[in-house]
Design a protein that fits this description.
This protein has 370 residues and is an alpha/beta fold. It has helices spanning 2-5, 52-68, 88-101, 118-128, 143-146, 148-160, 180-191, 214-222, 282-290, 298-301, 304-313, 318-343, 347-368, and strands spanning 15-21, 26-34, 40-47, 74-81, 108-112, 172-176, 195-201, 204-207, 234-236, 249-252, 271-273, 294-296. The protein contains 13 helices and twelve strands.
């Protein structure tokens, strides 16, 4: 019990709920971190090695992300301990069991995350009529299909390059994790003139300083193959090799903790756009800041998905979602980087201060009506 309460501070979490259904094979955790601004939104992550600490950390990241984006929502997260590569029938049964288990947790709105997708959210909403990131056929705005998070990363890049004395045209990009976020980030950055020089997935890395063929890489992934199956370029078995590639922009878009003490000194990028949640600790980010490597924190740079989810939840259109993503992420990226310069603090401190102020203001407003 002491370990659970060690997670607590003045912002939350409000609820930590363990879910278990032996017949369905369900083992899951839901963390509702803070609901001062409104019901919490946060994705459902499925992996065999998920933990309470991971869930709580991601829930707090959602609180800060939603607050920084100015959304009428708090932060939450759910993790399901299971292999997402299970059969479709088994996955549907597990997701429906999960949905029934969270029916009474009305201040948590689930969405897709690693290991789950729009179809999973369709099963959830069929059970409890409460989810975001739904398939288009159910009236949703499919986050991965339109590339909401990747689009937001490119919007952050448009602003951040001004603080790195470079432009996007011809900028060399390395992407660690070529899933939905990584692929769409590559696509939208390429639309702005950037060149993909390195990419990785769970089976390895691929590099070519002259540029990689993005369309061919996406086609390989759509066919269920690894990026290392591409003919040409230099393939390596280590998926993290791309972190130390000679590039201008690095996009970590996989699991938490991808940048750590063992590889931080190998980074040669000028700009890091955090596509994944918590890809580096604050201490690692501080090291990068001292080396004049600009890091746009996760809950600023990758907020496109939850901005889109909130737009969907409140009845907005896909066009409205994309417009809101671009506007909010550009505004917030510039706001924290200007504060970074003014106060001479790391970008994460500027971002956390911005978000925590908004959460605290919302909590104070709630208390004033009690």
């Amino acid at each position: 019990m002491s370990n659970i309460f060690a997670l607590c501070d003045e912002l939350g979490p409000e609820k930590v709920i363990h879910l278990h259904n032996s017949r369905a094979g369900l083992q899951a955790i839901v963390v509702v971190d803070n609901t001062a601004a409104g019901p919490s939104i946060g994705g459902v992550r499925m992996a065999p090695d998920v933990t309470l600490a991971e869930c709580a950390g991601l829930a707090r990241a959602m609180t800060l992300k939603n607050a920084a984006a100015g959304l009428p929502h708090g932060g939450g997260k759910a993790v399901i301990s299971a292999d997402p590569a299970m059969s479709t029938a088994a996955k549907q049964g597990l997701m429906r069991a999960f949905a029934k288990a969270i029916k009474q947790i009305e201040d948590y709105i689930p969405g897709p995350d690693m290991g789950t997708n729009e179809t999973c959210m369709g099963w959830v909403t069929d059970e409890i009529n409460r989810a975001v990131g739904l398939p288009r056929v159910l009236g949703g705005i499919p986050l991965d299909e339109i590339g909401a998070t990747g689009f937001g990363l490119a919007a952050a890049a448009e602003v951040a390059v001004d603080y790195c004395d470079m432009g996007l045209e011809g900028a060399r990009v390395s992407i660690q994790g070529f899933g939905a976020v990584g692929q769409n980030a590559a696509r939208f950055l390429a639309d702005k003139g950037a060149i993909l020089v390195a990419v990785s997935d769970s089976l390895g890395s691929l590099m070519d300083p002259d540029g990689l063929p993005l369309a061919e890489l996406i086609a390989l992934k759509s066919a269920g193959k690894s990026v290392t199956a591409l003919t040409g370029g230099k393939a390596m078995p280590d998926p993290t090799s791309v972190i130390g590639v000679d590039c201008d922009i690095l996009v970590p878009a996989a699991r938490p903790g991808a940048i750590h003490v063992g590889n931080v000194n190998s980074i040669r990028a000028k700009l890091i756009l955090e596509g994944a949640n918590i890809p580096a600790s604050p201490e690692i980010e501080a090291q990068l800041h001292s080396r004049r490597v600009l890091v746009v924190p996760d809950f600023i740079a990758n907020a496109g998905g939850v901005i889109c989810a909130s737009t969907e939840y409140h009845g907005g259109s896909e066009a409205q979602a994309m417009q809101t993503i671009a506007s909010k992420i550009r505004h917030n990226t510039r706001a924290i980087l200007e504060d970074m310069r003014k106060r001479r603090v790391p970008p994460r401190q500027a971002a956390v201060d911005l978000a925590q102020t908004r959460v605290s203001d919302a909590m104070a407003m709630r208390r004033s009506f009690v």
